[in-house]
From TrEMBL:
Belongs to the methyltransferase superfamily. L-isoaspartyl/D-aspartyl protein methyltransferase family. It comes from Streptomyces gibsoniae. It is an enzyme of class 2 (transferase). This is Protein-L-isoaspartate O-methyltransferase. Its EC number is 2.1.1.77. One of its GO terms (molecular function) is methyltransferase activity. Pfam families: PCMT. Gene3D superfamilies: Vaccinia Virus protein VP39.
Amino acid sequence: MTPDPVAARVEMVAELAGSGALGRGPVRDALLALPREVLIPQAYVRRSAPGEQPPRWDLLDWTAPGDREELLAVLYGGGSVLIQHDGEPVLGRTRGARSAGSITSMSTVMSVTASLLQELELRPGQRVLDVGTGAGVTAAVACHVCGDAGVVSLDRDRHVVDAARTRLGELGFRPAVVCGAGEQGLPSSAPYDRILVSFAVPRVPDALVDQLAPGGRLLVHVTTASPSWPGLAIVTREPEGRIAAELRAVEFAHRAGHGMERIVLSRAFLERIAGEPGRTTRRSRTAPPADTARGLWLAVGHLYGGLVRDFGAGPDQLVIGAPGCGSWLRVRPDGHGRWAVTTSGPRDIWDEIQDVAARWRAAGEPGSYPLVIDPGGAQRAGTRCGRLSWQLAEPSARADGSPR
């Protein structure tokens, strides 16, 4: 059976619409018109098992008939699409196996991309800065909706830039695709009506705020060194020039940007948490906060740094570790309407969570927080009363695992 890209495209858009990630409008029309197999004619699929070393991938190619069915599923399946291995040139590659190294560029999960593009409220004639070109999906949608004359796409990787410029051109689009540091934007083409950053940062880049036009909107994921509880910064410049912003708790975010520190729970640490008795175990009538209480968890991640959640622990457990100091928390139901709370290490993570939970409830259980951006200075998020507020880290700040 011959793979049908048009049918796959329609099905992908229908699934995005059904999940609530995409509504009717120009973004939906653009995604229905965008042949991803032209924009991304090659993509990697992982062949090695989780944890297997060295990792192994195959590069699939649309021009190879034997690859088309699998590649079509990758391109229109809604997941991340892996486009570059170990910083290689993206144009002129031969299909086939790769081993060791790492994936250095990818196209983001489509539900995240679609929802952000929709929230940008793109309109014809707008000037758009796409920061983090990747495969060029955001740039292609912006060109389709706004017209390519006003679209600028920026990426620090020359190979990614060259490939995106070529493939956007094959779609008939001629935006400015430029190599440079995304956090600095491109002042020579500013101001921009819309700015979308496709990687996470520790604070909103001041240079991008400065390049926002009156009436403009900037979207960027803001996270700590932990990947567990991200936020989306929504920044607008009022017609008179004043900056207004909020930090909204979200479930998923872009990957961390270049040079941003990330902390993880190693396999050895997870085995310790699963197998050790811990320092103390107490019985609690208080259930752990729900995953849907994202505003609470966002505050936890900022107010008590260095924590990482193990989302693979199962729906009936809460497992959090602090790799910097070796502390951990394990919460399980004990079968009697109570919870067994086990902690280990110098930090009492359960007490930290309960501290934030009490302040979060007193603040009305917010899911987003006002974000104050001082020109060239501090950025502060939190409730207006100040009981649940925190300073956003400087770009060079490192997580030391200690509470703030």
